[in-house]
């Protein structure tokens, strides 16, 4: 019988970390790493599965806020460190952990990054946001014109103080973006120390600091220099453009790699749009609507005729029911549905990454009036979550 417990002390957190890391085929946290990892254990949010006295599975979450279409910030659970001991897999341990986590989380929405695509759909998570992995040929990347603001390099201590403030001020600019928690920043600082060539620059315009980028550069055996952009946020188009001018005019750089939203306009910034090459498109945000009525009410909708959707949720049956969606909002109704959809696919359309009409061909949603539902759920920008957890 699998017993799920909330862990409460440091020794248990360390055992949790070791178990998760072993499930990922990594070694346990070292004595040097542990002080940095410890602050990421939030009391009340750390779960483990036990068989008798033995810990056999883990999950935990970080509390924060997520931006939804229309601009509201909703309480959000960032699920992480899911692992089951290799000698206990495929016996329902993860299922027990997921049931407990979803039924006890205080937040109406949860997201995670999935190690494999087949794991989380059965628990009601839908693939809700994808990202483009770009490679830029920096040696040929020319941005016409001159910068209008100022870019300055900042040291580690300044970055430590400034970046959380700047991220809070303008980092949540697309549906799916989430706030960062103190443990996230502690880990980010540690990674900066480990990779001592990680550089942070801050942009300022007429109203003060309005953008930042963190990057590191490595050199290959042919003396080519490759930059990885690790973190990038901006408040306005001038900051975005100036920071790209700075990155592409740095000496010695041959290539730049960066994650970007599906609709990121970077190709059109350069004289030659082909200097930006999409290496990959991968799934990023897996989203679980924990409280469907609250989440449907939290976002705004586009113009068009109302549509009644019927939602099926086996794991959290209180969500199952019919909802009338109109430009004025969402409400629970008893009316006949126009279409039916499982909760994982409602998660997939929620942020605007996917459309009802695209899903219709999969036969996993049924009914009619998909185009009307598309118009209501359409977002003006593609979702993104630039905070890895
Ligand atoms: C958010 C994150 O942290 S992502 C990181 C996830 N962790 C990992 O990838 C680490 C390595 N893997 C593991 O630790 C485990 O295999 C887990 C967590 C993926 C699955 O744990 P388990 O306890 O084996 O899952 P459980 O027994 O509850 O399986 C439930 C169902 O999912 C299926 N399933 C579970 N994992 C997988 C998988 N990797 N691929 C395909 N199906 C899977 C099971 O077959 C089962 O199906 P069924 O209900 O039809 O019988």
UniProtKB/TrEMBL annotation:
* Superkingdom of origin organism: Bacteria
Query: What's in the keyword line of the UniProt record?
Result: Acyltransferase, Transferase
The yes or no answer to whether the keyword Ligase is present is no
Question: So where's the catalytic machinery, residue-wise?
Answer: 120 (proton donor), 389 (proton acceptor)
**Gene3D superfamilies, alphabetically?**
3.40.630.30, SCP2 sterol-binding domain (3.30.1050.10)
- Where does this protein hold acetyl-CoA? 82-84, 90-95, 115-116
Q: Name one Pfam family in it.
A: Acetyltransf_17
UniProt xrefs under PROSITE patterns: GNAT
Question: Could you confirm whether the keyword Acyltransferase appears in this record?
Answer: yes
Q: How does it assemble?
A: Homohexamer; trimer of dimers.
Which family would the database say this protein is a member of? Belongs to the acetyltransferase Eis family.
NCBIfam families, per the entry: PRK01346.1-4
Classification via HAMAP family: Eis
Protein name as annotated: UPF0256 protein
The scientific name of the source species is Lentzea cavernae
